[in-house]
Amino acid sequence: MPPLPMSPQVFSILSALVAERIGLHFDVPHAPIFAEKVGARAVEAGFESLLDYYYFLRYDPQSQRELDSLIEALVVGETYLFRELAPLEAAVDDLIGPLVEAGRRPRVWCAACATGEEPHTLALLLAARGLLSAVDIVASDINAAALSRARSSRFSRRAVRADVPAFAASRLRVEEREVTIDPGLTQRIDWRRINLMDDAAVADLGTFDVIFCRNVLIYFSDETARQVIERLGARLAPDGALFVGISESLLRFGTSLRCEEQSGVFLYKKVS
């Protein structure tokens, strides 16, 4: 069956629905790729009209499963092991380690973790420093399929883009087509399916000493990003720190979090 045509009007209401439910923002320049992915998903679900597909997603009480499938089609989740490693090292050495030494049990949240390379990298760092058993790691994503892959302890070969750091070599097996991590590390991570637009679900996670939400805000509109930052900030313990991607900044959003530089890395602290 040929792709379903998407008029500007249908693009407007469908993209608004996606923004409302999961926060992803698609503007007019992204309309072709949005139309391609949504159209393919609608055909696979048995629809012959994107307008009918919209009405189903918007109003049918049985639409949640299909919305989940659409999310999987739209969420790219591009990530890899040891990506932007310096902020992770700074968090472990300058924030998490000292809390453990002070007798605390730090809680860390990797939000929007996709297939789990970031929390696994964090676990590898903590294990190398003898801290893993003293820290609670929560990793979340909206994409159920991505979380299933994360729990498997296996990644595609693209998960390693350079030489494996020495601290990880003993717990990582790199083969021609697959990368496998020590399942014991995976089991130390509390995997959760969380929509960052869901106030109640985010609040139920409790408070954290460190939150990573990296290379995520760029996919949101400014207003949605402000809302997400507010939710994340509310989950920080006093003096807790939020890390975003190295190409992201919160300064234009007027956040109450204070920007600091530590070990050459920028982070955002909750003022106690």
Question: What is the gist of this entry?
Answer:
With 272 residues, the chain is an alpha/beta fold. The chain contains ten helices and ten strands.
Characteristic key phrases:
single chain, 272 residues, alpha/beta, 7-stranded mixed beta sheet, 3-stranded antiparallel beta sheet, 10 helices, 18% strand, globular
Shape: globular
Please give the count of helices: 10
Proportion of residues in helical segments: 40-55%
Output the structural class.
alpha/beta
H/E element sequence: HHHHHEHEHEEEHEHEHEEE
Main beta-sheet strand count, sense and barrel state: 7 strands, mixed
Task: Give the beta-strand count.
Answer: 10
Please write out the topology:
Blueprint: H1 8-22, H2 31-44, H3 50-59, H4 64-74, H5 85-101, E1 107-110, H6 117-128, E2 136-141, H7 144-151, E3 154-156, E4 172-174, E5 178-181, H8 183-187, E6 189-193, H9 199-203, E7 208-212, H10 222-234, E8 236-243, E9 258-262, E10 265-269
Parallel strand pairs: 1-2, 1-7, 2-6, 7-8
Antiparallel strand pairs: 3-5, 4-5, 8-10, 9-10
